[in-house]
Amino acid sequence: MILQAFAKINLYLDITGKRADGYHLLETVMQSVDLADIVTVELSQNAITAECSDPTVPSGEGNICYKAARLFFENLNTVGGVSINIDKRIPHGAGLGGGSADAAAVLAGLNKLYGNPFGEDGLLQIGAKIGADVPFCMTGGTKLCRGIGEVMTDISPYPAKCFLIVKPPFSLATGAAYAEYDRRQIPPRVRGGAEYYNIFREVYSDDRIDRIVNRLSELGAVGAELTGSGSAVFGAFEDEGTAVSAARNFPECFTAVCRPTTAGVREI
């Protein structure tokens, strides 16, 4: 089975508190876009394997897809085997949810191959044990997510027709970002409708990121912001031609012009 695993962007992201177990509570608007990894899932004999075209992404037990398959089989109470291959097109370490999307695709693929033993809620519960973004990546669309990201509410899409994603040639560490937030304790905001905001850009105060955001605005984006904990930035555009022209201004970066999607995973 071959599946598209769609990237996500955080149109809005704020931290509203912290649980007793150390997990941060979020308020975030997530949007799936049609930049996608291609995940192939094939049943095999009593072994899980996971390989990726990107050498910087771990293979085997270190891959999030391996964990997804293992949890699927554990919840099914069976010893199963699957061969997983990831054609990586979503940049790694960008805040675009590529690993979570791949894990979501594995869960969706295995569920179908095994005759749909789990309903949507059951799969989402398994996904939440893998990572905070996995439940959203299974459903896709435009959602306001709270808790650690697993409490999802459908909302109206933002008015942007397409997005230009710009990933600079460096990554930012999620753990370090949360640690810096804990040190600074920035108060939560009140979200104001279809607003673009990311608390981590305030946490970082990184001129390299700010320059990309500002340049996207100069090039015609109606909104621009960091996604996730970075380092990718997106610009929201009203037409694709302007976004394509804007992409030429970032020759040293990965760029992709994307449209919003209503799905998180799609079989092809």
What does this structure look like?
The protein is an alpha+beta fold. It has 2 domains: 2-154, Ribosomal Protein S5, domain 2, CATH 3.30.230.10; 162-258, 2-Layer Sandwich (Alpha-Beta Plaits). It contains 8 helices and 12 strands. The strands form 2 sheets. Strands 1, 2, 3, 4, 5, 6, 8 and 12 form an 8-stranded mixed beta sheet that branches. α1 (64-76) crosses α3 and α2 (98-113) packs antiparallel against α3 (120-130). The longest helix has 16 residues, at 98-113. The protein starts with a strand and ends with a strand. The model has no long low-confidence stretch (mean pLDDT 95).
Question: What is this entry, summarized?
Answer:
The chain is an alpha+beta fold and 268 residues long. Helix content is 31%, strand content 32%.
- For the CA atoms, what is the radius of gyration? 18 Å
Provide the CATH top-level class of the largest domain: Alpha Beta
Task: Please tally the β strands and state the result.
Answer: 12
Question: Outline, from the CA principal axes?
Answer: globular
Q: What's the average pLDDT?
A: 95
Q: Which segments are poorly predicted (pLDDT under 50) over 5 or more consecutive residues?
A: none
Oligomeric organization of the protein chains: single chain
CATH architecture of the largest domain: 2-Layer Sandwich
Q: Tell me the fraction of residues in β-strands, as a range.
A: 25-35%
Number of helices: 8
The CATH topology of the largest domain turns out to be Ribosomal Protein S5, domain 2
Termini separation? 8 Å
* Number of domain modules: 2
